Amino acid sequence: YNKKVGTMSEIKLDVKQFYQRMGKLYAAFQKNKGAWGQANCLSLNRGPTNDDDVYAKSLVLHNYLFGIELTDTVILLTDTGKVYFLSTKKKIQFLEQLQGAPGVDDTKLSVKFLTRNKSDSNAANFQTLWKEVEKCMPAGEKTVKIGAFQKEWEANEKAGTANVSGWQKKIDDSDSEVVDINVGFGLL
Length: 188
Description:
Blueprint: H1 15-31, E1 41-43, H2 57-66, E2 74-77, E3 82-87, H3 89-95, E4 110-115, H4 123-135, E5 145-148, H5 150-159, H6 164-172, E6 177-180, H7 182-186
Parallel strand pairs: 1-5, 3-4, 5-6
Antiparallel strand pairs: 1-2, 2-3
Helix pairs in contact: 5-6
């Protein structure tokens, strides 16, 4: 990542580093579910910029994975290694560097991109994400546990952003349980 670059389209993502780091996060999630609140999947949301909380876990995560902050971006990590991104068109174009990148064929992760849809207020995108969440529900269970940074959850909802706030409302309106993942994240 070159900090002198001015526009998102000019920023080069370190693809190999992303897959190594996301792979490390995924492996830790799979290995020690207890530290991750017994979550069945992770919703790693980054809401709006908050200059008062420079140590927000989602900000740290974005810097760790991408080298930059991608505000109003949903990252859904499933228990099967699917990584869904929901964000604006420009951010998705930036993230598309991850798709079909050379040297990452051996990864257990697969990336999927959803671009914000203003015409239906993201309803189709939220439905796509929700279908993936439901696939994570263990057989015989009636509730899926979604891991999130709970300290940031309320502030994200109050911000009223199109992607993160809407996705969190979808989760809140469901029969799911949101569990805190700070311990698991802290062990990375």
